[in-house]
Amino acid sequence: MADSARAQLAELKIPAQPEFLSLAKRVAGSLGVQMGFKLEEIDDLGIAVVQACDSTIDAAEETWGEGATLKLTYSSTARGLAVDVEALPPGGDESLPSLARQQPPSTRSAVGQSEAQRALTREMIRLFVDDFLPQVDARSGRIRLRMVKYLVS
C-alpha cells in the first residue's frame, strides 16, 4: 500500500450504529462510479465497507460501550480508491455532538466478537478489496481499518 499520492475525496462521520451503514456504502459506491469502477468492483467495495464498519462498531462497543462515532475517509490513490474506517471514542474531539448520536437503542448483542470471528471478518474483507490493513492501538483502544480497491483498466 505504498500509494503516496492520495487526495481526500470525502469524509463521513456517522454514529457507530448499524442503521447508518447503508450511508457509508452509498458514498463508497458513488465515488467508485465517479472513478470508473465496474459494477462488480463497486459491489465488492460496498461489501467490504459494510463488513469493516460492522467489525469496527463491535470493537468500539467492546472498548467504550455505546456512543462511539465512525469516521470514514475516502481518498483517491494513484491506482484506486482507499477507504479508512476509524472508531472515535464517545465524547472525543472528533465525535458527533450528543444530539446527533441520540438514536433508538441498538439491537446488537451485548456479547462481543471472539478473536476467531474477528479473524474471519478480516479474511472476508480481504476477499473484496486489493489491500487491507487493520490497526488497533492497544493503549488508546483506537481502531482503524484501511482498505484499497485498485482500478483495473
Describe this structure in words.
The protein is an alpha+beta fold and 153 residues long. The protein has one domain: 2-Layer Sandwich (Heat Shock Protein 90), CATH 3.30.565. It has helices spanning 21-35, 39-64, 98-101, 115-128; strands spanning 7-15, 69-76, 80-88, 131-136, 143-150. The chain has a 5-stranded antiparallel sheet with strand order 1-2-3-5-4, with helices on one face. Helix 1 (21-35) runs antiparallel to helix 2 and helix 2 (39-64) packs antiparallel against helix 4 (115-128). The longest helix is centred in the middle third of the chain and has 26 residues, at 39-64. It is globular and about 45 Å long.
Radius of gyration: 15 Å
Instruction: Spell the H/E element sequence.
Output: EHHEEHHEE
Total number of distinct structural domains: 1
Distance between the termini: 19 Å
Q: What is the arithmetic mean of pLDDT?
A: 85
Please identify the top-level CATH class.
Alpha Beta
Relative helix content: 25-40%
Strand content: 25-35%
Per the principal axes of the C-alpha atoms, what is the gross shape? globular
Our count of helices gives 4
- Give the spatial strand order of the biggest sheet: 1-2-3-5-4
In the CATH hierarchy, what is the architecture at level 2?
A: 2-Layer Sandwich
CATH homologous superfamily identity = Histidine kinase-like ATPase, C-terminal domain
What ranges have pLDDT less than 50 throughout 5 or more consecutive residues? 99-111
Number of strands: 5
Biggest sheet architecture: 5 strands, antiparallel
Class inferred from helices and paired strands: alpha+beta
**What is CATH's topology name?**
Heat Shock Protein 90
